[in-house]
Write a structure and sequence with these properties.
Number of helices: 4
Bound molecules: 2-amino-4-trifluoromethylsulfanyl-butyric acid, cobalt (II) ion
Number of domains: 1
Low-confidence stretches: none
Distance between the termini: 25 Å
Mean pLDDT: 98
Helix content: 25-40%
Largest sheet: 5 strands, antiparallel
Strand order of the largest sheet: 7-6-8-13-14
CATH topology: Creatine Amidinohydrolase
Length: 248
């Protein structure tokens, strides 16, 4: 795992994060009924190039796109295809960018038009869990504290916590040590120190926590077909507290 050694490195990671935030904003605006997933992916590719960045997703273990687009019961790693955005869907967008060797990675799930209150509650709880994990990410805390804070939100909301996919260290590579679990025991696990950077990314299901990978080898869906939400930020641990790098 890397440590951010000074302000110049921090600023580069922050810049990568801002590009990710721009992808989130522009794709969310573009995601109106009838637009295809590949069209959204194309826009992400244009933004990455225009910002002088490169993609950390494209060609990652052979992954064929700039972003992951995961509708409804797809938990993560949905490959953009000719599917159209549809009214009443929820859509998870996971995006990343590299600026001068430093990585950003973030995800959100948003509704297309109107969705039932129960669906909004799934999105709200998953986003709340992300922020609970961020707030727990202070120097001296342990990864178990972060995972516990996330899991507690799922339990309270009666949602399934995805266990097979996790957050991760991030910096000079998209995926570095340590794994950042979305569950845990307070006081257990690696101690966080200033200079570390982690991607925190709860995935909650409306039903059970089971997952299944489709035949394309990437697309992860809920085993029971229930809806799933995913929120992620890249976070630097600093003496002043957590700094979210993937905000605008
Ligand atoms: N961004 C994802 C994560 O949060 C990883 C994407 S894998 C890729 O860890 F292959 F799609 F790039
Ligand atoms: Co990630």
């Amino acid at each position: 795992m890397i440590t951010i050694k000074g302000p110049r490195e921090f600023d580069k990671m922050r810049r990568a994060g801002q590009v990710v935030a721009r992808i989130h904003r522009e794709l969310r605006e573009a995601a109106v009924p009838g637009v295809t997933m590949v069209e959204l992916d194309r826009i992400a590719g244009e933004i990455i190039a225009e910002e002088g960045c490169t993609s950390n997703f494209l060609d990652y273990h052979g992954y064929p796109a700039y972003v992951c687009l995961s509708p409804n019961e797809v938990i993560v790693h949905g490959i953009p295809d000719e599917r159209e955005v549809a009214e009443g869907d929820i859509l998870s967008l996971d995006a990343g960018a590299i600026f001068e060797g430093w990585h950003g990675d973030a995800a959100l799930t948003f509704p297309i038009g109107e969705v039932p209150a129960e669906t909004r509650a799934l999105l709200d709880a998953t986003e709340r869990a992300l922020w609970a994990g961020i707030e727990a990410s202070v120097p001296g805390a342990r990864l178990g504290d972060v995972g516990h804070a996330i899991e507690a939100v799922a339990i309270e909301a009666g949602l399934g916590v995805v266990r097979e996919y996790t957050g991760h260290g991030i910096g000079r590579q998209m995926h570095e040590e340590p794994q950042v679990l979305n569950y845990g025991e307070p006081g257990k696990g690696m101690r966080l120190k200033a200079g570390m950077a982690i991607a925190i990314e709860p995935m909650f299901n409306m039903g059970g926590e089971g997952t299944r990978v489709l035949a394309d080898g990437w697309t992860v869906v809920t085993a029971d077909g229930s809806l799933s939400a995913h929120f992620e930020h890249t976070v630097a641990i600093t003496k002043q507290g957590p700094r979210v790098l993937t905000l605008p």
